[in-house]
Please model this.
Amino acid sequence: MEPLRLGLRYSTDAAHEPSGGFPAGSPHWIEGPLAPGVQSLGPFSVAVALDAADESASLDCVVTNRTATMVQLEAVVLGFRWAAAGSDLRFLRHGWQSWSFSAGRALDDAGEPAFPSGPWLRGMHHALGAPPPDRAGWHESDLVSVASGPRGSCLAGLLECGVATGVVYLRRHGDDLLVEVEARFEAPLEPGARLELERVLVALGDDPNRLLETFADELGARAGARTGSPFQAGWCSWYQFFGKVSEADLLRNLEALGKARVEFPIDLVQLDDGYQRAIGDWLETNERFPRGLAPLAQDIRSAGFRAGIWLAPFCVVPESRLFQAHPDWLLRGEGGPFRGLVHPDWAREGWVYALDPSREEVGRHLLRLSAALVGMGFSYLKLDFLYVAAMQATAHDPRVTRAGRLRRGLAAIRDGAGDETFLLGCGCPLGAAVGMVDGMRIGADVAPTWSVEEGARVRGIEPTQPSTANAIRNVLTRAWMHRRLWLNDPDCLMVRHTDTKLSSAELTSLAGAIAASGGMVLFSDEVGRLGAEERQLLRDTLALAREIDDGGARGTARALELLDAPAPGGLVGRSESAALAFLLNWDDQPRELATTLRDILPAAGPLPPRPALGAPAFESDAEGVVRASLAPHGSLLLRVHARIDLAVFCDFDGTFAVQDVGSTLAKRHAGDRRPALWARLSRGELNAWQYNMELLDGLRLPEDELDAFLRTVELDPGAATLVRWCEERNVPFRVLSDGFDRNLDRIQQLTGVRFAYDANRLWYEGGAWRIAASAPDASCSCGTGLCKRGRIRAFRSLHPGACVVHVGNGRVSDLCGALAADVVFAKDSLADALAAEGIAYEGFATLHDVVAGLERLSERLRR
Ligand code: 9PG
Model:
C-alpha cells in the first residue's frame, strides 16, 4: 500500500454553514502528497504521523486552522494505492448504522449505485445523504471496507471515537486499486484551533475476515469497547406483539417463562415499543399499561428475571409533553425542526423529530431519563433509532460533530444508567458508539417473512427493511464485531409456526445463523403456545449460541465467502472443542450443496460431522465433502468436532477462586441449619445435592448483599494466565463447578476474566434463592448437582484421543472428576484423598504451578 494524497474539503463562509447540514455550495478542495511531517494546505497546516509495519500502517492527522478566520472543515481525505491489485476485485460495502446493508459487491467501474430517492432517505443508512460530486464512479463504504482479489486483501478504515465519521471510497485505476478514507468532520474550526482526527488504519493480508478482526481489535482498544458482559439470553415482546403489546401479554409470558425456567435458561425479559404514552414521554404509559412501568419492572424482577425496556431516547413527536415543553431542544432543518424519520404509528402527522445532544440541557434530560428507568428496576435498556441524532442537521452547538452528538447523548445515558446497566444500541451508527454500549444490533429487523413484503417496500432502502433475509445477511457480514466492539445482537429468534409466513426451513436458518454467530439470543414468541418441536429448537439454539460464545474472549465466527453475492454462503463459529458450520441456500429454489469441510475447518477430528437443529439429511465422504439438498432458504448446520490433544477441566470454589463461594455464603446466611444438615450428609442420609437443596433453596439473601460478597471473591493469582495459556494453544478450558451459574457470571464480570463453565442454576424468585441441578448422575456416587465424571466422559466420547486434565481441591465433586481424568492437579483434601487411594497426582499451590505443569505435559504430548 502506497500513500498517495492528502486532501481537505472546506469552506470559508462558515457563518451560514450549519454543522452537518447539506453544504450550500460545493466546498473547496485542496490536496498535497500524503507523507509524514507537516505541510500547509490552504487555510490549514496538517501534521501527519505514520506508523508503518510490514503489512499495515496507521496514520494520525492533526489539522490546525492557521488563519484568523473561522473555517468550516468538511472532511480530511487520506488516499492510498494498492498497486497491481488485479482487475477481478470484490469489496465489502459496509453500512452506516445497525440496520444498513452490509455485504460484498463487485468493484466494477460503475461505482456506488445511484440512490433512487433524495438525500434525506439516503442519509438514514449512509453517513452522507449525497456523496461529494467528485466521487462519481467511486464505490463507497461506511466506517471500513476490505477489498479482495487474486492477489490478497486490503483493508482501510477510520478508528472512530466520536469525532469524525469515516467513509471509505474505492475505485480501480488500471490494475491498481485506489482507496481513500474520508474522515467527515463537518464542523467549524476556529482560528488557531487544532483538531486531532481519529486514526486511519490500512492493512494488507490474505484473509478479509482476519483483516476485519484486526480492525475491530484496534477500534475496540482505542474506543474502550465494552465486551465483557455475560452471554445474553432473553425474551422480547416485539416480534410477537409489535406495537400492540399490553401488560397482560407481558405478564402472561412472564409466568410461562418462570415455569419454563429450567427448560429455557434465559434471565432477561424485555418490553419493546408499545407501552409509552408518546414517543419522547418514556416514563408514562398508555392505557394498555394501566399500572405504569415501575410495578412491571418489579414483577419481572421478583419472578427472577432482569427487566429490560425499549426506548428511542433521541426521538420526539409533537404529541409528547417533551416536544411541547422543549421545542428548542430539537435538531433543526431548513425552516423548522429536523425530521428524523416518518413513522405513521407514532405521530398523527407521521413526522418524528430528533433531540439535539449538543445542548447541555438535553444531556441532563437523557441522564435523568436513564437514571429514572434504572431506578424503577430496569437493568437493560434497548436504545433504538439512535441514528437520528447523527444525521446531517443543524445543531445548537455546531462545534459538536454528528458523531459527537451521538457519543455525547450515549455518554449522558450511560452516566444516568450507571456502569452495570446493559445498554443495547439499535438503529445506531456503529463507529461512534463503540465504548458506550454493551450490545449492538448489527442488522435489520427480523420479521415473520423471509423477504420484505411487496406492499411494504421503500425504494432504495429495501435491503435495510424488516425481513429475516436482511437480518441474516448482516449476521454473517458483521460477525467479526462480536466481543471486539460489543456483543452482537443478531435480532430475535422466532420459533413459532403460527402467526408467521416463515417456512420450517427458514425458521431453522434463522436459528442456525444466530447459533453459529455466538451472539445474543432473544426470542419473541408467545411462550405458552409453543409446541414440543418449537421448544426444542429454542433450547438447542440457546445452548449452541452459548457454546460458541464461550469459545473465546473475542468472537470466533467467520463468514464463508464473506464477499459473495447476494451474501456470504455461511458462517463458522468455533467453541473450545468444536466448530459449528452454518451453510445457507440463499436461492428461492432448492439447491444441491457440496462443500469441502476440510477447507473450512483445517483441524477436524476423527469423528464425522453431526447435524444440529434438525439439519436436513446429508452425506459426508472420506475426503471431507459434505452433500445435502437444501430447501429454498434452507440450511445445514453441522457440528464438527475439532482434533483435541489436550483439554483442561478446572474446579471453581477453592481452586479457580480463592474462596469457596457456596460454603462461605452457607456459613454466613444459613449457619443455624448447617450443623444438622451436615450431620445428615456425613451419615449418608443426604447426598451433596440434597444437602445444597435443603440449605440453599429458598435462602433469603438480599441481592445486594450477595453482590457485596461476590465483589470480595478473588481468583487464584494464576487463573487469568491459565485461561490465556489454554486459549492461545487451542486447548479447551472449562470450569466444572457444583456451584451456581449466576455467581460465576457475576464474578467473570467483576474480575474481567472470561471462561466457559458448567454449573448449577441459581435465580431469585420473590427475593429468595432458587436452585436447580444441571447435570446430576444418579449412577455416580458423588451425588452432586453436576457430576464432573459425567461431564468428562461426555467430552471423551467426542474426543477419544484427548488427554484430559482435571484441576481441583475437594474430596467430593473433584474426586469424581479426578477419577475420570488422565492427569490430575490436586491440592488440599483432593490431594489427601488421592494419596490415600494411591492415585498419582501433581500437587500445586497456585494455578501458575498448573500452567508450568501443563507446559511440561504438552511438551511430552508433542513427542
Ligand atoms: C420497535 C422496533 C423494534 C425493532 C427495532 C426497530 O425502517 N423502519 O421503518 C423500521 C421500523 C422499525 C424498526 C426498524 C426499522 O424496528 O429494530 O427491534 O424495537 O423498532 O418500533
Q: What stands out?
A: The chain has a mean pLDDT of 95. The longest strand covers residues 176-189. The chain has 22 helices and 45 strands.
